[in-house]
Every structure is written in structure tokens, then in C-alpha cells.
Specification:
2 domains, mainly alpha, about 0% strand, Growth Hormone, Chain: A
Length: about 475
């Protein structure tokens, strides 16, 4: 192995670890919420904002973060975002009241929205299109795809042994190390042909996306048919529509609309939205089923998620070779159909269940399908743009992921809660049965979404020959480090 190859490998390890931490942070705090609520005197209806504040700013600013990476420089934005993320994590861990923690989580989301597209676009800059990039994306998929499942494992252990603050403190040394290594391992790269900045597009995109995330995450509290949900939802869609009008006329658009002419990229982002809609609620309900119905403690519930994390990582790591041989269309569709089967199996959970009977089997199936789906959607959504717009492509992909997760959780929570409320009666035993009924319907709903995602992949993703013909030549050599 040459020195250049070794340094690229180290750079990939750093960037993959970054994606892992960002995915992990969205789930690691979930297990700690009861402890946070007690220590900081959260009102029960406000506790969800520990997670929602992060999601709101992360999802709302991703497009702006991705384009900023192209315009200002990917390494520069990576380091700036990681610095903000680490400082906000430290402030969050030191929080003395609810408002301080929610504010810190919102700033964490801003940092993540800067880091995520910069990290993914740096991978596209370092590795040329083809087998090398597929392998790199496979590594990213292996660690980031396992991040969601691993969050409950680490969150449970850290909360029980070191306190909820440790779920935020853990980000600080990771951030410091990443910042220190960046000038040594990561190249600086940007879109040298870019001129000007689309301020109107940035304002409407950020405002519309952030407002839409807020509407989705608060819909279950406010009511789906409430004046707040309908009014804010309409305003968010109006801002997004205005954004597209501005982009069509702007001299230097934030998102050049011609990027959506790429069938593979367009289809992969739609499938990404559907896949995260299906899978993100599964992590949420697996944890709650084990803690609220099976009566597992945080550590035991976290360890029970380990098979899912391991299988997903192994499958994602081996997916690159499959993509190199047959393209992304078939593995993407197959992965989501397997996820649908696993979620349908998980929906058969029982109130008298156990890990071996109700959790292990579905976890393995979902891990196989999820590993395939994560890597193939990542490759599909970031192919065909060339290095000069890799930050934009990464921002679009991450936006689809975040909105899929927010929408999926909002919809599944609403359906599961309605079912639980319908069957709920007095008595602890019956309450557990009512919760289980809600979880079952929620997982069945998620299985339906995954099934639609698999069919969408077959319909929207071009075959190998079509994908090759539509992809522009990525003539730029990989940047030397």
C-alpha cells in the first residue's frame, strides 16, 4: 500500500466515524430522556424537544450546509461544523435547566447540518466514481447504518453507569480529535466555478424546511387536523414552492434545478425518504417495546439491539462489491423488500414476548435489508453530479434522510398512539397489552412504507446501462492528500 493510499484510508476512517457520530447522536439521547426529564424538571409535553430541537435545525439547514461546502470549501466547513457540534455538546452536558439543554441541542443540529454534507462530499472528492467509491460508501454505510442501532446500546450503558450527561460529553473528545486530524488527512476542495450566493434561496429553503420539520414533529401534540398543523404546514409548503420559483430564475442558485434531471439521483432521494420513513420509527419502537413491555433496563435493551447493529454493518460493508457488479437498482429494491418483511415479522410482537422469539429474528432480517438499502441509496443519491457539486448532492441526500425520519416517526407515532388509546383500559397488565397493540400497528405501517420504497426503487432507479449513460464523466482526478 502506497503512502497516498494509506492516507486516503485514514481520511475515510475519519469521515466514516463522523457519519457514525452524527447518526448516533440522533438516537443516543433517546434512552436518556427519562433521566433528563427528572434531573432538569422537564414538563412531560416538552421532553420530546430534546430530540426535536436537534432534528429541526439539522433537517432545516442541510441544503444550505451542502452548498456552503461547495462554495467555501469542504474541509473548512467540516472543521467549522465539527467545532460547533463539539462546543454545543459540551454546553448541553453542562445544562442546568431545560431551556439550556434544548438550545444546545438546536446548535448541535446546526453543526451537524454543516458537517454531514461536507463529510460525504469529501469522500466523493477523495475517491473516483466506480469501485473505489463504492467501497468507500460501503464503509460509510457499515458504520453509519449501525449508528442508529448502536445509539441505544451506548445510550443505555452511559446513562445507567455515568449519567445522562455522558451521552453528550462523549462527543467532545471525538470532535477535538476530528478537528486536529482534519488539516493532516483531509484535502481542501470547492467548486472553483461558483460565483455569487443565492440569499433569497437560502432564506426560503431554510425557513420552509425548518418549518416543515417543526410541523411534523409537533403534529402529534397539536393534532394533525389542528389549525396549527394545517396553517404551519401550508406556510412551509408555500415557502418551499417559492424557493423553487427563485431557483428557476436565480443567476447563481443555491440548488440548480438541472440536478433533478438526473433520474438516478432523483429516484434515489425519493427512495431514501421512504426507507428512513420505514426504518427510523423501528429503532424508536424496538427500544420502547423492550423497556415498557418486556421490562428491560437501559443496558439490557441496548445490548438487545446489538445483533441488528452487527448484521447491518456486515451487510453494508459487503454491499459495495454487489453494486460494482450489478448496479444499485436491484440491491436497493431487494434491501427494502427485506426490510418490509422484517418489519412485518416484528409487528407480530406479543405482550408475553421475549428477545429470542420476538426481537432477534426480525432484527437480523431488518439488519440485512437495512445494510443494503443504506449503501445503495447513498451511492445512488450521490452519483452523477461530478465533484464540483458533491456538497449539494450530499445535502440533498441528507435532507431526504432527515425528512424521512421526521415524517416516518410522526406518522407511525400518531397511528400507534391512536391504536393504544383505543384499546387502553385500566390495569397494568392491560396497559402493556395496549402499548403492544400500538407498537404492532406502527411496525406494520412502517413495513408498508418499506414495501412502497422497494417498488419505487424498481420503478424510479435506472438500470446499470441507463445509469452509466446518464452520468457525466467525472474527469477530475481524486484530490491528493
Amino acid at each position: 500500500m502506497t503512502q497516498a493510499s494509506r492516507r486516503r484510508g485514514l481520511a475515510l476512517a475519519l469521515l466514516a466515524a463522523t457519519q457514525f457520530v452524527l447518526v448516533l447522536d440522533a438516537s443516543i439521547v433517546g434512552v436518556a430522556l427519562p433521566s433528563i426529564g427528572t434531573d432538569l424538571a422537564f414538563a412531560p409535553e416538552d421532553l420530546s424537544w430534546v430530540a426535536n430541537a436537534y432534528t429541526l435545525t439539522f433537517g432545516g439547514l442541510l441544503l444550505l450546509g451542502g452548498r456552503a461546502a461547495d462554495l467555501i470549501g469542504r474541509r473548512r466547513m467540516y472543521m467549522a461544523g465539527m467545532s460547533l457540534f463539539a462546543v454545543a455538546s459540551l454546553v448541553g452536558a453542562l445544562s442546568v435547566n431545560a431551556a439550556m439543554l434544548v438550545g444546545a441541542r438546536a446548535v448541535q443540529g446546526v453543526g451537524a447540518a454543516i458537517v454531514a454534507p461536507a463529510a460525504l462530499s469529501l469522500i466523493m472528492t477523495l475517491f473516483p466514481a466506480g469501485p473505489e467509491r463504492y467501497k468507500a460508501m460501503g464503509v460509510v454505510g457499515a458504520v453509519a447504518g449501525a449508528g442508529g442501532a448502536t445509539g441505544s446500546i451506548l445510550g443505555g450503558g452511559l446513562t445507567e453507569w455515568l449519567g445522562w450527561e455522558s451521552t453528550l460529553y462523549v462527543n467532545v473528545p471525538i470532535g477535538v480529535l476530528a478537528i486536529a486530524l482534519s488539516p493532516v488527512l483531509l484535502p481542501e476542495a470547492k467548486d472553483s466555478a461558483a460565483r455569487g450566493f443565492d440569499l433569497a434561496g437560502a432564506v426560503t429553503a431554510t425557513g420552509g424546511l425548518a418549518l416543515l420539520v417543526y410541523t411534523l414533529v409537533d403534529a402529534d401534540n397539536a393534532g394533525w387536523a389542528s389549525a396549527q398543523t394545517l396553517g404551519l404546514g401550508a406556510l412551509a409548503l408555500l415557502l418551499i414552492a417559492l424557493f423553487f420559483v427563485i431557483e428557476a430564475r436565480a443567476a447563481h442558485p443555491l440548488v440548480p434545478l438541472r440536478i433533478f434531471r438526473l433520474r438516478g439521483l432523483r429516484g434515489a432521494n425519493i427512495v431514501t425518504l421512504l426507507s428512513t420513513m420505514a426504518m427510523f420509527p423501528m429503532f424508536f419502537y424496538m427500544t420502547f417495546y423492550m423497556q415498557q413491555v418486556l421490562d428491560y433496563g437501559p443496558v439490557k435493551a441496548g445490548l438487545a439491539a446489538l445483533p441488528l447493529a452487527v448484521v447491518m454493518a456486515v451487510t453494508a460493508g459487503s454491499a459495495s462489491a454487489l453494486i460494482a457488479r450489478i448496479g444499485v437498482r436491484v440491491p436497493m429494491a431487494a434491501g427494502l423488500l427485506v426490510v418490509a418483511a422484517g418489519l412485518a415479522w416484528f409487528s407480530r410482537m406479543s405482550v408475553d414476548g421475549s428477545f429470542l422469539v420476538d426481537v432477534l429474528g426480525p432484527s437480523i432480517v431488518i439488519g440485512v435489508g437495512g445494510g443494503l438499502a443504506f449503501v445503495t441509496t447513498t451511492v445512488g443519491a450521490t452519483s452523477g453530479t461530478g465533484q464540483e457539486q458533491s456538497g449539494l448532492a450530499s445535502g440533498l441526500f441528507n435532507t431526504a434522510q432527515q425528512f424521512g425520519g421526521s415524517l416516518g416517526l410522526a406518522v407511525v407515532v400518531a397511528i400507534a398512539t391512536a391504536r393504544t388509546t383505543h384499546v387502553l383500559q385500566d390495569g397494568e397488565r392491560i396497559a402493556a397489552a395496549a402499548l403492544t397493540e400500538g407498537y404492532r400497528l406502527g411496525m406494520l405501517t412502517a413495513a408498508g412504507v418499506a414495501l412502497v420504497g422497494g417498488l419505487a426503487a424498481l420503478a424510479l432507479i435506472p438500470g446499470r446501462s441507463a445509469a452509466t449513460s446518464e452520468e457525466p464523466a467525472d474527469t477530475a482526478a481524486p484530490v491528493k492528500v
